[in-house]
TrEMBL record:
Belongs to the NAGSA dehydrogenase family. Type 1 subfamily. Catalyzes the NADPH-dependent reduction of N-acetyl-5-glutamyl phosphate to yield N-acetyl-L-glutamate 5-semialdehyde. Its main location: cytoplasm. It comes from Selenomonas montiformis. This is N-acetyl-gamma-glutamyl-phosphate reductase. It catalyses: N-acetyl-L-glutamate 5-semialdehyde + phosphate + NADP(+) = N-acetyl-L-glutamyl 5-phosphate + NADPH + H(+). The keyword NADP applies. GO terms for molecular function: N-acetyl-gamma-glutamyl-phosphate reductase activity; NAD binding; NADP+ binding. It is found in: Cytoplasm.
Length: 344
């Protein structure tokens, strides 16, 4: 399969290149950047030296890129992918957008939270969270890859929502991310003195991943779900740990919760169930496409507390995109993704 990466100079784009290098069925044919057009990717990312001798092109060549590619991966800030999608509408090329443009079934929700008009609302698109929407992904033309915090949170909560074990209006997600989640461009909050030896929350009661989690929990449970989501920034480069709370419905035994996780994920390669009472950690999944999940039950409050860990750049972005690509192409789902996590 000929694939192209738009926004190859971003963290998500560069991570795609790292993963695609080892993919047995993918050949990268075009990579783009607007601010580094004409430069070699390995000059911007020395870890790719000797592995990619490719020159960055401009998106002005989008027509030719679309004609040459079977799949286009988009690692651009939100708002750009829908323009690419429109430009590709008449071509056989398929799209996996790592941003948010194609994640929402209802584009008015996207517009309300992202504050830009949606310019491609008629697009046939599917939500790219592989373990939960595999059948839809198989034949999709446009896949809206799930977000990073959202992947960790939705995978943690899905068994409880699907089996109606919790009140879906009592969900609280408290999640922590490494700084690569904010992208490569310089921002004051990510400046070393601001970040180092520091820990803080941001976008409380207003983060854009809130409606994405609500959309999935509503879909999986069949009940309208309104949640609280609080992200935090931690001074590490990669990794997300999500701590998710929900009130159990009356009379739900712990074994029913255990069984729900086993039923949904028991056969999933990329979801590792650590079990009741265990503690996932970001280092155990670093550099891999795994999502590690454990759950605890507090009988005093009748709450279930689910912990999940992912690498935001892999299962939260590029790895999940390649997993979706594998599903969409009928390849083994682990193709190019069979990494042992980098420990320690
Ligand atoms: N980082 C993460 O953990 C995750 C990121 N994502 C999503 O992936 C996408 C990329 O994120 P990330 O790699 O972190 O971001 P970066 O800021 O690291 O990279 C952004 C990329 O977009 C390009 N770009 C920026 N502005 C424009 C523009 N106006 N027109 C065209 N290209 C532009 C940049 O290219 P250049 O400046 O060279 O022209 C660069 O390649 C985003 O939608 C993000 O939400 C999703 C999940 C996780
Ligand atoms: C640490 C950090 O800043 N994380 C980003 C989320 C990562 C991202 O790029 O958003 P998507 O997953 O929706 O694409 C944020 O909070 O906006």
């Amino acid at each position: 399969m000929k694939v192209s990466v738009l926004g190859a100079t971003g963290y998500a784009g560069a991570e795609l290149l790292r993963i695609l290098y080892n993919h047995p069925e993918a050949e990268v044919v075009h990579i783009t950047s607007e601010s580094h057009t004409g430069e070699k990717i390995a000059d911007l990312y020395p870890h790719l030296r000797g592995l990619y001798d490719m020159t960055l092109e401009s998106m002005k060549e989008i027509e030719a890129i679309g004609d040459d590619s079977d799949f286009v991966f988009i690692g651009l800030p939100h708002g750009h992918a829908m323009e690419v999608g429109r430009a590709m509408a008449g071509k056989p090329v398929r799209i996996i957008d790592l941003g948010a443009d194609y994640r929402f079934a209802d584009t008015s929700v996207y517009e309300a939270w992202y504050h830009v008009p949606h310019t491609h609302p008629e697009a046939e698109r599917v939500y790219g969270l592989a373990e939960l929407y595999r059948e839809e992904i198989r034949n999709a033309k446009i896949i809206g890859n799930a977000g990073c915090f959202t992947t960790a949170s939705i995978l943690a909560l899905a068994p409880l929502a699907k089996q109606h074990l919790v009140d879906v209006n009592t969900i609280i997600v408290d999640a922590k991310s490494g700084v690569s989640g904010a992208g490569r461009s310089a921002k004051q909050a990510n400046h070393f003195p601001e970040l180092y030896d520091n820990f803080r929350a941001y976008n409380v009661a207003g983060h854009r991943h809130t409606p994405e989690i609500e959309q999935a929990i509503t879909d999986l449970s069949g009940e309208k779900s309104i949640i609280n989501f609080t992200p935090h920034l931690v001074p590490m480069s990669r990794g997300i740990l999500a701590t998710c709370y929900a009130r159990l419905r009356d009379g739900i035994a712990s074994e029913l919760v255990d069984a729900a996780y086993e039923k949904l994920y028991g056969k999933e390669h990329f979801i590792r169930l650590l079990g009741r009472g265990a503690y996932p950690s970001t280092k155990d999944v670093r550099g891999s496409n795994f999502c590690d999940i454990a759950w605890h039950i507090d009988p005093r409050t009748n709450r279930v507390i689910v912990l999940s860990a992912i690498d935001n750049l892999v299962k939260g972005a590029a790895g999940q995109a390649v997993q979706n690509f594998n599903i969409a192409c009928g390849f083994d789902e682990t193709a190019g993704l069979d990494y042992v996590p980098m420990y320690p």
